[in-house]
């Protein structure tokens, strides 16, 4: 993995700061239908118009994109010291994450139908990044713990 393609180290902290509020907003808007009033768009209001529509609120979309971007910033930002061993850990973690993402996608395709399948695939987009972050951070934690014992 080329380190030139990784994001700067400081962006990881922006991702960490955004992850909790965006995930909370995603849950609130998805489960409890919470809406932020400033994300409401009036749409077209002509009565005889083909595009007559009701008010649209984009809280869910905003939270979804915010959660995705915050996880992206966390997953693909450089470490303070980026060497070949960390690149290998990244690659191994990404490979495992892709395997689990594929397995989850196949199982979800067999289990869910109709609108539930659409919801499943929407939330499944986070599983690749989530598994990568958890596995990579776990291996880095164990490696750091091993080094401090020596």
Write the layout of secondary structure elements.
Blueprint: H1 11-31, E1 40-41, E2 56-57, H2 59-75, H3 84-111, H4 114-149
Antiparallel strand pairs: 1-2
Helix pairs in contact: 1-2, 2-4, 3-4
Describe this structure in words.
The protein is built from four helices and two strands; from the N terminus they run αββααα. With 150 residues, the chain is mainly α. A two-stranded antiparallel ribbon has the order 1-2. It is globular and about 65 Å long. The mean pLDDT is 89.
Question: Which strand order does the major sheet show?
Answer: 1-2
The gyration radius over C-alpha positions equals 20 Å
Regions with little confidence, pLDDT below 50 for 5+ residues: none
- Helical residues, percent: 55-70%
Q: Which secondary-structure class do the elements indicate? A: mainly alpha
| Largest sheet report | 2 strands, antiparallel
Approximately what portion of the residues adopt beta-strand conformation? under 5%
Overall 3D shape: globular
In short:
This protein is mostly helical. The chain has helices spanning 11-31, 59-75, 84-111, 114-149; strands spanning 40-41, 56-57. The chain starts with 10 loop residues before the first helix and ends with a helix.
């Amino acid at each position: 993995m080329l380190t030139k393609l990784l994001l700067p180290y400081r962006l990881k902290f922006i991702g960490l700061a955004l992850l909790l509020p965006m995930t909370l907003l995603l849950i609130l808007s998805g489960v409890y239908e919470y809406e932020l009033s400033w994300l409401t768009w009036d749409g077209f209001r002509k009565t005889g118009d083909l595009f007559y529509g009701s008010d649209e609120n984009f809280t869910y979309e905003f939270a979804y994109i915010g959660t995705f971007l915050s996880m992206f910033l966390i997953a693909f930002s450089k470490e303070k010291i980026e060497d070949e061993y960390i690149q290998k850990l990244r690659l191994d973690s990404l490979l495992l994450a892709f395997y689990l993402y594929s397995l989850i996608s196949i199982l979800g395709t067999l289990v869910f139908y109709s609108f539930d399948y659409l919801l499943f695939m929407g939330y499944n987009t986070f599983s690749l990044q989530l598994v990568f972050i958890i596995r990579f951070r776990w291996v880095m934690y164990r490696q750091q713990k091993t080094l401090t014992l020596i």
